[in-house]
């Protein structure tokens, strides 16, 4: 038909114009805005920290600053930074996730551990057990998790840092119990994951599965996450069991060099990370049940909930983080082999 | 958040399937059993969840319900959802009308391929729809280095969310209009042209008025999906609080923060949108059934 051509051209041109206009609507970024890409359970923590930092920064410089947050499974969050989310700082659940960003995207300097005190760890944590009230299955230690009738809820170690700490904590326990026998430690972890009915992608997902949906008998989880369930669901429904030994869990923080240089936010972002080491921030960590680097800065009643227990470092058992990640969680690693052996 | 469109959503099919009352020969108990099964199914899978959403939303009273909407993050989510729909729906409206018009009124090489391509978003999982944009526009993606160089942020920002939404709502308008326009044929347009109308004039005064109710109906469905889309948007959003969370993503975040009242309150907003859509859709079907159902009056 005659009229098809001119109209066709108009429409194609209009569609093209619209898509260009769309690409141009890049949100203008104010200088005084930071983005902290964090892992799953720190939602409540960074609400407090970000507000405290904004107040502190305003008092010191007069500049109004907004710190935005994005939360999700630690591995998934690292992936979004690699894919280009404009994060100024990352506060993730496990060192290997920051290593992955440094290795794949080069947006973080490979020596990030040396840039901040205590290898970039303003606080640490550990894994404890959340059980149903009265502990009906009698879970006291890691060995009890593989009792025949015990169902364990834990997140997927591929995507979740909490999931990886649980995995490594169980492995480390079995390794020490069996006189450093690697085969027996592997077999123990294999049995444990056969008793997991649901693998969520993040620690928060697992908590909701256990606490809200009522699945499983025991939730090995971040200490802070266990206390959060206490606060949200009431202490009459759950008990926290602190095992005699557990893992020294290291959720590190780092500056995303490439992004802050591009956005011109290096000064603010560095100040934000330094702020995490101040007494004020340290007290906030303890209040949210994370183990502060400076115990003296925390309130007595908060510290009382963080008892000294025997904590082992996974690096002491398995070597460097590159090795730990490769051996256990990369494609074809121990976790994948367990999956195949189980089916 | 319906994942695909059922054939029943197309009134053309619906109208032809409706049997005249006299055909029914089954005995009473067969009819009543079938009706009971259908009603029970609807109650269990549609009405009950809907009631639960509102019951949970108002569990702690109207005050707690309204408090969910006074949060700055909720405002940001509502605003972003409206912006997204305001760009995606007109875009798909223009595309859908032109595509349907070309396919229904002309024969050309690659016509069948075009129809298949338009259907693609229905058959692809929304997660994949999101991932393709990460693979194209992400830092490690095809256009990543170029975008970084020119300081353009597509994914983890508003443009990415709009693109993903356009993709998943792509077929709604075209799919609704193609059968309608095919049924109407090209006779009226040809008459207009013979009488000296230009192509644009014929389209505006003949084609468009013929499809207006079907078009409105399609836009309605397209809008509901644009505002409710979760999967594809979740992949490209980056979940930055107060910046890249749409309403469905905000619901998930609140739920994961044990904020069940606020979560269901925001969900009730989406459910309300669905109900309004449903009512307008029913009114349209009832009032303009003939116009929507492929110009039956002409035959």
Automatic annotation (TrEMBL), chain A:
PANTHER family: SULFATE-BINDING PROTEIN
Any Gene Ontology CC annotation: periplasmic space
Source organism: Methylobacterium haplocladii
Compartments (UniProt record): Periplasm
Gene Ontology annotations of biological process type: sulfate transmembrane transport
PROSITE patterns: TONB_DEPENDENT_REC_1
A Pfam short name: SBP_bac_11
Main subcellular location of this protein, as a coarse class: periplasm
One GO MF term attached to the UniProt entry: molecular carrier activity
InterPro entries: Thiosulph/SO4-bd, TonB_box_CS
Sorted UniProt keywords: Periplasm, Signal, Transport
Protein family: Belongs to the prokaryotic sulfate-binding protein family.
Gene3D superfamilies the UniProt entry points to: Periplasmic binding protein-like II
Name this polypeptide is given: Sulfate transporter subunit
UniProtKB/TrEMBL annotation, chain B:
Quaternary data: The complex is composed of two ATP-binding proteins (CysA), two transmembrane proteins (CysT and CysW) and a solute-binding protein (CysP).
Gene Ontology cellular-component terms listed: plasma membrane
GO molecular function, one term: ABC-type sulfate transporter activity
Pfam family, one: BPD_transp_1
Protein name in UniProt: Sulfate transport system permease protein CysW
Annotated transmembrane regions: 32-59, 80-104, 124-147, 154-174, 258-280
Database matches in SUPFAM superfamilies: MetI-like (SSF161098)
Annotated ABC transmembrane type-1 domain residues: 78-279
Record function comment: Part of the ABC transporter complex CysAWTP (TC 3.A.1.6.1) involved in sulfate/thiosulfate import. Probably responsible for the translocation of the substrate across the membrane.
Gene3D superfamilies assigned to the protein according to its UniProt record, in alphabetical order: MetI-like (1.10.3720.10)
Keyword Zinc: no
Membrane topology listed for this record: Multi-pass membrane protein
Sorted UniProt keywords: Cell inner membrane, Cell membrane, Membrane, Sulfate transport, Transmembrane, Transmembrane helix, Transport
